[in-house]
Amino acid sequence: MEHRLAEGLWQLDTRLGGFDAVNASFLVEGERPCLVETGPQLTAGVVRQALARRGLGPQDLATVVLTHIHLDHGGGAGEIAAAFPRARVLCHPRGARHLADPTRLVAAAAAVYGPALDTLYGRMTPVPADRVVAAPDGQRIDIGGGRWLRCIHSPGHAKHHLAVLDERSGTLLVGDAVGVRIPGAGPLRPSTPPDDFDRDQAIASLRRFAAVHPTQVVLSHFGPAGDPPSVLADAEEQLMGWCAAAAAAVAEVDDLDHVARALEGLASRDDREPVEPDRERIVEMMSGVRSNAAGLLGWLRRPAGGAPAAPSPAWGGPVG
User: Fold this and answer.
1) N or C: which end of the chain has fewer CB within 10 A?
2) Helix, strand, or coil here: 34?
3) Could you give the C-alpha distances from 257 to 249, 250, 263, in angstroms and in order?
4) What per-residue string of b and e applies to 66-103 under the rule 16 or more CB within 10 Å gives b?
5) Dist. CA 23–CA 11, nearest whole Å
6) CA 190 to CA 157: how far, in whole Å?
7) d(Cα 256, Cα 222) in Å, to the nearest integer?
8) At 79, which helix (H) or strand (E)?
């Protein structure tokens, strides 16, 4: 369940929903170990067990970093904080208040996922406010022994998103900012969920990633993505294609179902990698066409997206 990405850097499979190779956390070992991503509340025990196998006891973990506060990435923060009482919890400044009081975050997630929330992700236990750190862009985290992690603000997928660069190995942990590629479920897919997806910010974030020249780009869903320049270029091309398809659909009919059908057409034509039916169902669960369509529709309906602002009644409100 643990996979070595680089010296002292491990990928931990959270086994979200009981599935392998869907959702990851990452351990950076050193004098002051750091966990990047907790995974959801329901699999916090899986992550604790993985950390124990790597030799970490309750007093050992120094820092937790969340790429963003969506429940599949940070829903287990309260449980991990309780299990490792010395660890501080870092996130983007726009997400920090929701860790201390996740009421609105959980309500918005419940509006999107309905009953599946409590069977797939769980909810979120508050993190003590005095242990939450709002990480500015560029903040560096000292792991010890000359190893540093750097936080890179990367909004677009969500306004509270950041990536984490392991400066020693050059590994860039990108959360959802590059997209989703579940093994066996086809090629890289954009992730444009409601309610605050923003195309221009997402593209700017991809270009920021390219500018740091990472040695590998690692997705939280799931794992190393391939040659970094090619992956980042592909992510930008795919994202622009989805945005263009959504805009064209809205110009015809401003309707969620119509946008979703347009994206389904794109996905069905992208046959660069084989798809296993069981795994395809998983990627629809993690980054479904309809959810992505809702995020794109919300972006297009906002003034910055070029169309009149209007609420999308099928989805929860903003959390930041």
Assistant:
1) N
2) strand
3) 10, 10, 10
4) bbbbbbbbbbbbbbbbebbeebbbbbbebbbbbbeebe
5) 10
6) 9
7) 28
8) helix 77-83
Q: Which helix (H) or strand (E) holds 285?
A: helix 277-287
Tens of pLDDT along 101-148?
A: 999 999 988 887 788 889 889 999 999 999 999 999 999 999 999 999
pTM: 0.92
DSSP SS3 for 282: helix
Per-residue b/e over 213-226, b at no fewer than 16 CB within 10 Å? ebebbbbbbbbbbe
Name the burial class of residue 232, with classes exposed (0-12), middle (13-18) and buried (19+) by CB atoms within 10 angstroms of its CB.
buried
Residue type, 160: H
CB 152 within 8 A of CB 165: yes
**Domain 2-173 CATH assignment equals 3.60.15.10:** yes
Inter-residue contact 149 to 140 (CB < 8 Å): yes
Domain borders along the chain are: 2-173, 234-305
Structure-token match 């990851």, residue found: 24
Q: pLDDT digits over 40-77, tens only?
A: 999 999 999 999 999 999 999 999 999 999 999 999 99
Give the tens place of pLDDT for each residue, 147-159: 999 999 999 999 9
Distance of CA 244 to the CA centre of its chain: 23
For the residues of 202-269, what is the DSSP string, one character each? Answer: HHHHHHHHHHT--SEEEETTTEE-SSHHHHHHHHHHHHHHHHHHHHHHHHH---HHHHHHHHHHHHHH
Amino acid occupying residue 319: V
CA dihedral sign of residues 283, 173, 239, 102:
positive
Distant-in-sequence, close-in-space partners of 223: CB < 8 Å, separation ≥ 6: 3, 11, 21, 24, 183
